[in-house]
Design a protein that fits this description.
heterodimer; A: 507 residues; alpha/beta; eight-stranded mixed beta sheet; six-stranded antiparallel beta sheet; 14 helices; 21 strands; globular; B: 119 residues; mainly alpha; 5 helices; 53% helix
Chain lengths: 507, 119
């Protein structure tokens, strides 16, 4: 049996449909759940607010690309500590515009989750079969040498010189052309984003996919969800058109950790007896350096993020290489006027490397606005987490200088605009920084509907089942109880893989 | 014009915030003058070196919100400047013609949208 994919132009009138399971959100979590449930013989409807995108739709201009593929035009920020954060809105969600990094959560992280959040089946050994299933399906493999490019190999050389471990990044990519365009969409169709992998597999197994369909409410009677209601929205303009209702025996929310709590709140505070929905929001705040070399690096060539280091995971940070549209990267460059222009002129001899911090003490909230469906995000970088970021920048500077960099820029207030030696960099270790001194970005977000073994302290159990609503499940990174310390996609997909089995068993 | 192409795609709420940002920067020098004679005029009426000094004041301020205003303004300008095909060509980082199974990016020609007209 083959399913279908419908877009905005296909909706002639309001519609009401029935299904075994309705899945809200077609990002990595939702797509995995839809495919697994459809292949298990369940009648599945997968709903996505954004449109499907093809390589012809991918804009090379970073700003315009963000305006087309991200919610709030890609300009969403947190309140409190102001930090940009993004959420994709298209079929395939974040997997279409991320850099395809796949990392299993470390054993020590999952052990801590189990211990602190009363989880009994979420050790690495428990999750490995689910990681494996996703990895096999997507063909996750190390970034090949031929597409590393100098930007990535310089990172390796710097780590080697200092004796730090490093490795090519595992990615869900096949036949990469090294265009460095992961963040604006892969024109080579090399990235195995879920819109071209899991969603088609779900459709082949009979799932019906409705794009441009914004869910506005989960309908429930007593302790049971009976379906969802929403409106069709025009791609890019978000102009609302007809309405729809999907009646289902089970509801899986996978709208992302910044949208799922809003949906629960807009549904009358559903599944929130614990009062934890929308709480505990955490990020991996990212910081970055730009380092200048004597040689021409050609930084735009090579895998967007091809190399990383786990050396400092237990210290709270992970190091990575990075490329993005220059318009986005320039945001972090210090200076203005002629000084800035001169620095931009050195881009061909520069690399950008970043670090993500496991800042578990820095928490925030996700709240619905009175109008619309954009979340109100509050988050504050805790003072105790600041040394994680400053130390990460010191380590990145150290690696760059070891690789032969002539200058390093961190973009941190109170640090010399250009660091030329480790002595210059010591300020990163010694100064007492404020959160506003850093230019951070937070594109890994989690914990807003956390799992907890105690129903009073979490929204779902470790299988994604709501503690309050019998047939409601959550399958996005909101269920993480803490930062995973590494890129979250694979862990989110592994958990969704397990949740899909729980949903099927519960029908 | 390039920045206009972007701004027209930005949702109205964010566009309003951007207008407020431009209004703030344009009129702030009426109350906090830029150095030099005539530094109390609107930003767009200042001499280039006065504009640079005024921006430097925002950028290096001890007040986080002032620095934030500068970063937001610079981000908007940088997005326009570094999306302009001649700038990207000059820097050697213009996007290449990429297609499934095609040559690696460093061996591919420049994407026609970014190539020199007539090349």
């Amino acid at each position: 049996m083959s399913g279908s994919v419908r877009g905005f132009a296909d909706y002639r009138s309001d519609c009401i449909e029935d299904a075994d399971v309705v899945v809200v959100g077609s990002g990595p979590g939702g797509a995995v759940a839809a495919k697994e449930l459809a292949e298990a013989g369940r009648d599945v409807v997968l709903l996505e607010e954004g449109p499907p995108l093809t390589p012809e739709d991918f804009e090379l201009d970073g700003a315009i690309s963000m305006a087309r593929t991200m919610r709030d035009s890609g300009l969403r920020t947190t309140l409190g500590t102001v930090m940009p954060t993004m959420q994709a809105v298209c079929l395939g969600g974040g997997s279409v515009v991320n850099s395809a990094i796949c990392v299993r959560a470390p054993e020590f992280v999952l052990d801590e989750w189990c211990e602190r959040y009363a989880l009994r089946h979420s050790t690495r050994a428990d999750l490995d079969p689910h990681y494996q299933a996703v990895g096999d399906f997507l063909g996750i493999a190390p970034t090949p040498e031929e597409v590393l490019g100098r930007r990535n190999t310089l990172f390796r050389e710097g780590c080697d010189a200092l004796g730090y471990s490093s490795e090519p990044i595992l990615r869900n990519v096949r036949d990469c052309r090294g265009s460095g365009e992961c963040f604006t969409g892969c024109r080579a169709r090399a990235k195995q984003s879920v819109d071209i992998t899991y969603v088609p597999a779900a459709v082949r197994a009979g799932a019906r996919v409705l794009t441009s369909a914004r869910v506005e409410k989960v309908v429930s009677v007593g302790r049971r969800a009976t379906g969802v209601q929403g409106r069709f929205v025009e791609p890019f303009t978000e102009r609302a058109a007809g309405s729809f209702e999907i009646r289902a025996r089970a509801v899986v929310l996978a709208a992302g950790c910044m949208a799922t709590p809003v949906l629960l709140e807009k549904s009358g505070g559903l599944a929130n007896r614990s009062r934890q929905a929308g709480q505990n929001l955490r990020f991996h705040p990212g910081v970055a350096i730009t380092a200048f070399f004597d040689e021409t690096v050609d930084p735009s060539f090579g895998a967007t993020q091809g190399y990383h280091s786990f050396e400092f995971l237990r210290d709270g940070y992970k190091l990575e290489t990075l490329w993005a549209p220059p318009a986005i990267l320039a945001v972090r460059m210090p200076g203005s006027g002629h000084a800035l222009k001169n620095r931009l002129g050195r881009i061909p001899r520069s690399v950008v490397w970043d670090a993500i911090g496991s800042c578990n003490r820095s928490v925030g909230t996700v709240r619905a606005r009175r109008r619309g469906f954009s979340p109100r995000l509050s988050w504050r970088l805790d003072r105790r987490d600041i040394p994680i970021l400053s130390q990460a920048l010191y380590t990145l500077s150290e690696i760059a200088l070891a690789a032969g960099a002539r200058g390093v820029m961190t973009g941190v207030q109170g640090v010399p605009e250009e660091i030329h030696s480790l002595d210059d960099a010591q300020v990163l270790r010694n100064k007492d920084f404020q959160s506003s001194d850093f230019m951070t970005g937070g594109n890994h977000a989690f914990c807003s509907t956390r799992m907890h073994g105690d129903p009073r302290r979490g929204v779902v159990d470790e299988f994604g089942r709501s503690h309050d609503v019998e047939n409601l499940y959550i399958a996005d990174t909101g269920v993480f109880p803490q930062c995973p310390s590494v890129n979250p996609m694979w862990t989110g997909m592994a958990l969704a893989h397990r949740t899909a089995a729980a949903v099927s068993d519960g029908l | 014009m390039h920045t206009d192409r972007w701004l027209v795609r930005v949702e109205p709420r964010v566009r309003l915030l951007m207008r407020l940002l431009f209004f703030l920067v344009e009129h702030a020098t009426l109350f906090f003058p830029a150095p030099g004679w005539g530094g109390w005029r609107r930003f767009s009426s200042l001499r280039p070196e006065q504009r640079e000094a005024a921006l430097e004041g925002w950028r290096t301020s001890r007040l986080g919100p002032r620095r934030l205003v500068f970063q937001a303004l610079r981000s908007i300008v940088a997005m326009g400047y570094l999306s302009y095909p001649p700038v990207l060509r000059e820097l050697g980082i213009a996007p290449r013609s990429i297609r499934p199974g095609g040559p690696l990016a460093n061996e591919a020609p420049i994407d026609p949208r970014y190539a020199e007209p007539g090349s």
